[in-house]
Fold each of these.
Amino acid sequence: MDVLIVENDVSVLSYIVGLIQRWGHNAEKSETGRDTIKKVKEKIFDLVLLDTSIHDMTAQVLIAKLKELRPDIKIVTMTESNTGELEKDIRTLGIVYYMSKPVSEGVLKDILDHISMKKDRMVGQDEATVSDQRSSP
């Protein structure tokens, strides 16, 4: 699974990348909204882990831009400054999960496992459809 981690704290970014790679997934880093948009234009990611406090744009603006580029993109947000208003605003944008920092390894692994299983099932269904189409007269 390809995961893009958007985080402006370099130590947190390195920690999360290490976890994701240890669990067998590919992880790419981004520290800004602009860089994130560029990377999402160039590559399809299975998941974006997004810190809500990046410096060059609000998380809400970035989520909207990512959804515009890739409507089916899966986004999990992470925040140190959890407020009911922030959570409500972000959840209305169609994210998969909203979590507070520090990031729980167990919760993050469960999310990745869940999305990875859904992706594997979808790929299996696509392969079955292609196989059915080939065997049809």
Amino acid sequence: MGPVTSVRAPYLFDETLVAEVAAVGVARKGVWRALRGAGYCEELVESAGTVVTELASNAVRVACGEAVRVRLRPVRDEGGGVWVEVWDDQDAAPVPRPVVHSLDDIDLLPCDEVIGGWGLGIVASLSSRQEIRPTEPCGKWVAALIPCCRRAG
């Protein structure tokens, strides 16, 4: 499966992908390639790869249509960094799990609640800001700002 669209300014990466599980890996590899090609440090590259994996997984899981979209938008102000943005056709915002403070808290959860659903916490830990931006006529962008580290080279 390959991307359906190509990069458009001001984005480092902008792809519309078929809404299926394989799109997550395509998005992650595209993000890695774009950020490394633009000279970002490996810490930011890896963080953005993890964030896009989590956001794209959510988007693919909830999408009713045939596509999800993934973008990388560099930030020149606010100390720099990169917005990782993922679009799906559903209006409902993702719901984060309650914070777990210890492994004992996890032991108290029913078995069907232990697996999955931790992605938004991972996204929050790797990003400095998160946003949900509704789109018309339906859908939303879920975005996370990965703060800048020093540029490679």
